[in-house]
Design goal:
This protein has 178 residues and is of the alpha/beta class. Helix content is 30%, strand content 33%. The chain has 5 helices and 8 strands.
């Protein structure tokens, strides 16, 4: 599907909200899973995965870059793997981390790709899940139908046409260079 499927309401998520959400998620992971490797889905999952790895005291990380969105709310035809940088996954417990599951196609592509590396087990974690997603991660903080703007993507959001209105985000947006 291409183009936005529904009207977009913008939600700005602060660093303190992110830290709270990831702390809650880390506690859930600790009680049910013992990951040995964290794999970030780039770009959105890079920062959450680093924080999760820190909270869970996991040394090894990898990442897989997937492209899907062309602009805010505008998806391409299908996601594709752009780049992989992975430690050994065979016979290890892997936690895959992203920021948002929207359609579910990106995270499903990552799971299918990583499965070929024969991990012992694999679980998924995201901050936000869209109610229409075809994939439900093992761990998620909240279900929302809003377009999320994270503090690490202010310039990217502005470039894609989002009007930045949150006070803290507006201040940083002055440094975007356009």
């Amino acid at each position: 599907m291409t183009g936005p499927a529904r009207p977009l309401k913008i939600r700005y998520v602060s660093w303190s909200e992110i830290h709270k959400a990831l702390s809650v998620l880390a506690n859930s992971v600790r009680s049910t899973f013992n990951p040995e490797v964290v794999v970030a889905i780039a770009k959105g999952g890079l920062i959450p995965s680093r924080i999760i790895a820190d909270l869970l005291m996991i040394e090894e990380m990898g990442f897989i870059e997937v492209k899907f969105y062309k602009a805010v709310g505008l998806r391409g035809e299908k996601p594709f793997i752009k780049y992989l940088a992975l430690p050994a996954l065979r016979d290890r417990n892997v936690l895959v981390v992203d920021d948002v599951v929207d359609s579910g196609r990106t995270i499903q592509l990552v799971i299918d790709t990583l499965s070929s590396y024969a991990p012992r087990s694999m679980k998924t974690l995201v901050l936000y899940l869209k109610p229409w997603a075809a994939f439900t991660p093992d761990y998620y903080y909240e279900v929302t139908n809003e377009w999320i703007v994270f503090p690490w993507e202010i310039c990217e959001s502005k470039k894609e046409g989002v009007t930045i209105e949150h006070e803290e985000f507006v201040e940083f947006g002055k440094y975007c260079g356009f």
